[in-house]
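ok posting inputs for the zinc ion job
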Amino acid sequence: MRKFILDFERPVAELEEKLEELKQLSSAGQPDIAAEIGYLEAQIEKLRVHIYSNLTPWQRVQIARHPDRPRTLDYIEAIFTDFIELKGDRLFADDPAMIGGFARLDHVKAMVVGTQKGRNTKENVMRNFGMPHPEGYRKALRLMTLADKNALPIISFIDTLGAYPGIGAEERGQAAAIATNLMTMAKLSVPIIAVNIGEGGSGGALALGVADTVLMLENSYYSVISPEGCASILWRDNAKAPTAAEELGLTADKLLEHGLVDTVIKEPLGGAHRAPALVARDLKKALVAAVRRHLTKTPGELVEGRYARMRAVGSFESAEEAAEASE
Amino acid sequence: MRKFILDFERPVAELEEKLEELKQLSSAGQPDIAAEIGYLEAQIEKLRVHIYSNLTPWQRVQIARHPDRPRTLDYIEAIFTDFIELKGDRLFADDPAMIGGFARLDHVKAMVVGTQKGRNTKENVMRNFGMPHPEGYRKALRLMTLADKNALPIISFIDTLGAYPGIGAEERGQAAAIATNLMTMAKLSVPIIAVNIGEGGSGGALALGVADTVLMLENSYYSVISPEGCASILWRDNAKAPTAAEELGLTADKLLEHGLVDTVIKEPLGGAHRAPALVARDLKKALVAAVRRHLTKTPGELVEGRYARMRAVGSFESAEEAAEASE
Amino acid sequence: MPISEWFGKNKNDNNGEGRAEKLVIPDGVWLKCDSCGEVVFHREFERRFKVCPKCGFHAPLGALERIAHLIDLGTFNEIATGIVSCDPLDFRANKSYTEVVEAARAKTGLAEAVVCGSGEIDGRPVAFLVMDFSFIGGSMGSVVGEKVTELFEWAADMRRPVVSVCASGGARMQEGMYSLIQMAKTSAAVGRHASTGCSYISLLCHPTTGGVLASFASLADIIVAEPKALIGFTGPRVIEQTMKQKLPKGFQTAEFMLEHGQVDMIVPRADQKETIGRLIDYTTRDVG
Amino acid sequence: MPISEWFGKNKNDNNGEGRAEKLVIPDGVWLKCDSCGEVVFHREFERRFKVCPKCGFHAPLGALERIAHLIDLGTFNEIATGIVSCDPLDFRANKSYTEVVEAARAKTGLAEAVVCGSGEIDGRPVAFLVMDFSFIGGSMGSVVGEKVTELFEWAADMRRPVVSVCASGGARMQEGMYSLIQMAKTSAAVGRHASTGCSYISLLCHPTTGGVLASFASLADIIVAEPKALIGFTGPRVIEQTMKQKLPKGFQTAEFMLEHGQVDMIVPRADQKETIGRLIDYTTRDVG
Ligand SMILES: [Zn+2]
Ligand SMILES: [Zn+2]
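and the output
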């Protein structure tokens, strides 16, 4: 039973309730109901396929934020073995919104880092809803530097609405922490694979995203600004978030189309939380393949390749061509 | 006129008061007093020479802590030109107990860092009495690393009772901050000259003291623990601080004798605050000489030399020899 | 007219005191200070590069004014030119992105929100970039990211120090992820420049926030701020909404950032050129 | 008897379960836990390496017990031996320094407050050092500093990871500045070892403070702490005197340090050997 129903899932939920009623009538002895049950089941399936095959960007954002969606630690547990969590930035605090440690991916020793949301309200308070403070980014950087020292590939999990917008975060240099991660990740001489498993919110997500391969789950999103933030700035109206989500091109398929990410991992109909083990299996395959591919490279090739990868991102044209085209 | 008289200076101060009285009588017209004045002046001079030529370690500690003693910024002003202060650790705060920045020493571009005490109560509160928090050590490290990048020699001024013993300092990793400075300073490939101008209290002082040349002013002290702390542990009696000061061998002359520092800069009778310009002049000479000597070395020579210098410090003997000797 | 010509034009003019007046459109002899409300003499205001002579308020400067202020007359040569933004997402709000960019071009006379070039500061050769907040809030899209990256790469090749002057609201949302990744791209370029041993001095002006502060603007060896400039990752309004409480007075000002260890010094506009020049001296190896 | 012989003696003994009992001086079948006050079976207490089976209290372990606990039986070879401390300052309090050292030797049977050597942890070769708090408060004088330095230098030459186990009140004041400078000396040695790409794992035990925490003990790649161990630069009494206020509950415990980002993990004694072994696996390059 799903605990949480998104708005656009309600039609299915309603039919499912009806189906439940029919089934109870059937088991209570009411005859001639089997055909009706069969029909309803087919209808439900049709509706589900219809809804989930035509998700709008905003609907995907909602799935990406679904409270039952698997979190970083769920994937670490399902995909890796021998995880040893390492804590602390050695400067100010341990940030529970950011986790990391050693783990083995199909026997390959690796370092995992990632933002971590809670599974319930209590956990979410502890994890600050997966929004790191500067100490979280500094912990991640410490662990990635340790991976670099030990020639371990890095797998980073992205699932955050963004860096936390608070007074303490500003006091302790949120911007400098993110910038330092961006600069340093570009220089690390080990493979870096980033995977966006849910929300990829702005600079706070990118601070784990400078990678050799970037994977996205089908219903994750990656955006320069939250749809709500964009709507509030451009339309002065948060309710325009669905439109903003559309315009921002933040879905996995769109980003793949633009060549900004490498691979999209399919999710089961309805989202990753409907069959977490299946998603973990496919994600593992993709991670293993990516790590294998990059582990054959020399440190120099990795660093040059990663630089070239970022260097190439940009949508612009020569001024002359533009002028000619507009004539 | 001195504002502040140490206990052991009182006999001189009393004679000086008497002298003042006599001079007033004289100027008031009282005859036949000139001889007496001359005699008293001679007596005072004799007494001063006697006291200041036979200072106990504890008396030197008191001079090192004298409120009128020149501070780091006073020496920077007197010795260097074109000082540009740089602030902040880029992590948590700017620590006013630690200062630093670019400056020129006799036209040589350099980086200066140092602990900074206040000149009065208000300043001392702002400067936390010259006792740094972790952010102070991290600021100093940032500036020293910047000096390393730019091939600038480092001059560090030590004048602190020690790293600040407070809750926030512990929370933010006082020990780790000091340790990181010790390790990193050993690796910097530029000349480092440390000068102890007053108090050199324990690890908090040493965190600026890993150097190629270590200078001490005559009445500064450098100690593994404060005399009061030592007395409180060993005799359970703070009043035993003078004895502890004796035992700890913390004075400049003693440390020179043991080969633990390189040069002692003489101070005028009574301490550096009696003639700051004179002390600054002599200190400048010593600094210029030290910087010149080390600037001719390659980065490799500097790092190896600094390592060897520390590596050689230790008072021990072979167990066999010791056994033979005790037979 | 390209910027280089614009500045080249001044080459043989009298320099020093009088050069600011070149930028004045004399639409009035007096003007009212935005901060203290006092009426000040226009020429005086412009001569001080828009610092109020009564209260010291630092009014915003455009990119060309910044160049005139900091770079020796006649030495500026624009580089990293010749590219213009596309509209990769076909982004439409009230206006299309293309219209937004065209309006910004018309308003500012600039091709984009950043101007990059080589030049001299009191005779010292530097690579220089300056952002203009009046161009779509100084936001960083693909073109800004590319130009900044090219400048750092050029400076790395030429072994020149970089001086950047930022005023930006952050990433340019109309380019979506293309904008976001410019943060990584420019930061990586700063890293390569730093690896050559060259230095980088960043001047933060009102306001510098978001994706620009969280990338190249924060990665300098030495960070200088203009008095009272707003400097922060998340804008104060968003924080206030999240925290549901009033922000402390002076939050995210340059002075606040100095206290919290995020910038090295605050330097009034009148002293910036001299101070930056001295900093370059200290961070450039003497040719022996 | 040198330590190597002491451990060599056990080489052919039965290992595993029984080995702790080698260390037991069976002065009673029962003993009272220092923490919970419960009476516990002595053998059980020793079998758990002095962890109370009732409350989990970790009683102090001596250097030899630590070696027995963490290092594979028969693999430990002491190195950096053969030096003893002098009394460079002719230091006298109630007892002379020489008398203090002699008393510590007699009490502990150790030559100094640290034992260094090579050994294996679950078959993985390491360089190992362990401090003994019962030797003058585990304080670091010239001999401790020299031995620690030699160990890191040896490990750097041999390309071995280092595992250190600390319990120390800090620098040894009776050697004055000689002691203080050991902080710099050992830290420099850690730096050289790190430069070879080898890893360093530090286990902090109750208590680790002062000059040892502020030098090599804090410079590890990975820092592990024992539950409830006191860890801090300045001792709590001194801070209380300075602050003139009660310290918060749990201040300077391992748990406090974990929360404040200063240690990676807290590992109970029962799991330490296995955890450290796994950490060594992760930080040692597979020979391909
Ligand atoms: Zn004004
Ligand atoms: Zn117990």
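notes: Chain A touches chain D at residues 82, 84-95, 102, 109, 135, 139, 146, 149-152 (CB under 8 Å). The mean pLDDT of chain A is 95.
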